[in-house]
Amino acid sequence: MARTDSTGSTWRYRWAHRQNERRQRAFRDADETWRRRDEELRRLRTLAEDFTGSAAAGAGLPLELAGDEVVFWVLPAAQLVEVRHTAVLPAPDLTVAPQGTPMRSRRADGTRIADAGMAVITSRRLVLLGGRGRRDWAYGKMTGLAHDPAAPVTLIQVLDRRRASGVMLPADVAADFRFKLTLAFADAIEQRPAVIAQLDEAIAEHAQLKPFRPGIATPAQARLTGFVPGGRRTVAIAAGIALLVPVALLESDPSDPTSEVAVAATPAPGTPARPAAPAVAGPKRSSGAATPTPARDRLCGAPDNPMGYGFCAGERIREPAVAVCDHLDCVPEFWAGRGYLVQCGDGSVSLAGGSPRACGSHGGVRHTFRN
């Protein structure tokens, strides 16, 4: 037997089931994204702590090491790229930038492939052992360093060469190469603790972004709009029509004397026009009690909601009520947002106001809710 509430209906239970499934799905997606980033940050933190090299790691390489020089990392597949024109690269720094969009295996614009061979990161330099010879980039002579965000290309500028050059690596190892090169450079200038401190700060900030598990929707929270196909949009359209019909009837009221005069003043076809009789003033209608202000006018056009969130002047809403998604159509991963409450182009609401990605797949930002 189907479960029913006190009204004898089952749609409330179906509404609660759909709401809970949607909330859990959005939470799982946000939590998985957060965990992947957390694991990556902690992996980099461990690598920065344990990053060591040895002279033995360079055994068998056609590379002569200095007395205190050690090898940190060797990559057998690398290409030498050279910049076609003179360029000024930004000064090298110790910033650990997160990997954004996936890189494509292509060389950067304005560069050419000059050689191919093995890339070696040591405690003093980056070396490419190519088929045409060796190319060194000593940390002590490095004046510029740039990582292409869209291609697995790293360009370096040094004092003893006029044009910048660098290496292109397989896309799947480029991020690790860049981090290890940063660690090697930091070691050379005795600043590895600064990189570790930067990662500790990034881990602490990321921990504050951990998504909260959503509350459980109950059948008692279901609104009547959940029973109507199309939900609030259907109800809003029906309400708009219901408001327009009385206005149209009032404007065409046949008992209005001015309407009768207007009808009488219109001559029948073939009949000479007659002067219209003066209009007789009808009884003055009493205005009666003041008409309550409609909710959408009170909220400046915002969807009706018991929290009083509207589009009028006021403060932006950064911490909405827990039950906001019971009364407004929240986007997936709503609670993962870290901005203020906005309405998207398709009528849904998002908590990512202020971010350039807010309502990205929902028609863009239309309005900002205020309280």
Question: Can you give keywords for this protein?
Answer:
3 domains; seven-stranded antiparallel beta sheet; 18% strand; alpha+beta; 371 residues; three-stranded antiparallel beta sheet; PH-domain like; 29% helix
Summarize the structure.
By secondary structure, the protein is an alpha+beta fold. 29% of the residues lie in helices and 18% in strands.
Give the structural class: alpha+beta
CATH architecture of the largest domain: Roll
Q: Nearest-angstrom radius of gyration?
A: 35 Å
Question: Mind summarizing the main beta sheet?
Answer: 7 strands, antiparallel
Q: What is the arithmetic mean of pLDDT?
A: 81
How many domains? 3
As a percent range, the share of helical residues equals 25-40%
Q: What's the end-to-end separation, in Å? A: 45 Å
What topology, given as strand order, has the largest sheet?
4-3-2-1-7-6-5
What order do the helices and strands follow? HEEEEEEEHHHHHHEEE
In the CATH scheme, the class of the largest domain would be Mainly Beta
* Unreliable spans: 1-8, 252-290
